[in-house]
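Hi V.,

Quick status before I head out on leave. The structure for the redesign project is tokenized and pasted below; the design run finished overnight.
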């Protein structure tokens, strides 16, 4: 059977992503909502509304020990953000733990907060737990960043050139840490996100091919 060029490209793109990879719809459904980790919603009357134009990566900036309960970490972070910083909520919209699980933080319709000089309005803020000046991100975390960035890029029509990190907008920080920043700097995340988006488009455009029944 002759394979048409368009179909061949679709098959190659599909093969570039593991068969077990979640669709972006499945990624969205897998995000742990605020209510599930014991958080409370922010007051919408106090929120600064935004339209997403950028995807921006952060790190926790503190050690995160294996075995730490991510739900307790998030409850503590929410309490600190509101009680000590007097912010609306957790400053980030999504948090990724050591296992690559994605948790909802601040409602994405609400602009985030930062200790530095840049204005995060319009930015979908992703925090990866850990201090990446001191440790390396693990593969589960890197994969989760790609999945989440691809989901956000598709959902909010964010171009690959608008995927960056905290330190790209501020001279006052090394966030997301040297060991995570290099994946931003060398184009790893943009490349992987492009592959995921292409795979998603290919899967949607290519009809399911059913195997012929055995005689």
């Amino acid at each position: 059977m002759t394979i048409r060029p368009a179909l061949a490209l679709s098959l190659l793109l599909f093969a570039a992503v593991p068969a077990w990879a979640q669709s972006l719809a499945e990624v969205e459904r897998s995000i742990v909502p605020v209510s599930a980790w014991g958080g409370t919603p922010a007051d919408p009357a106090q929120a600064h509304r935004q339209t997403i134009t950028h995807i921006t990566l952060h790190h926790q900036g503190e050690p995160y020990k294996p075995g730490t309960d991510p739900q307790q970490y998030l409850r503590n972070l929410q309490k600190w953000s509101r009680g000590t910083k007097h912010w609306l909520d957790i400053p980030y919209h999504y948090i990724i733990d050591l296992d690559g699980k994605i948790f909802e933080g601040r409602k994405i319709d609400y602009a985030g907060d930062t200790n530095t000089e840049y204005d995060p309005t319009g930015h979908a803020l992703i925090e990866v737990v850990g201090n990446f000046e001191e440790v390396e991100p693990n593969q589960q975390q890197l994969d989760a960043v790609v999945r989440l960035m691809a989901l956000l890029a598709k959902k909010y029509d964010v171009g690959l050139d608008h995927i960056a990190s905290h330190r790209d907008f501020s001279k006052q920080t090394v966030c997301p840490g040297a060991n995570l920043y290099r994946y931003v700097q060398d184009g790893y995340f943009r490349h992987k996100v492009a592959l995921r988006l292409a795979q998603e488009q290919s899967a949607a455009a290519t009809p399911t091919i059913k195997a012929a029944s055995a005689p």
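Above is the designed sequence. The first strand starts at residue 54 and ends at 59.

G. will cover questions while I'm gone.

Best,
W.
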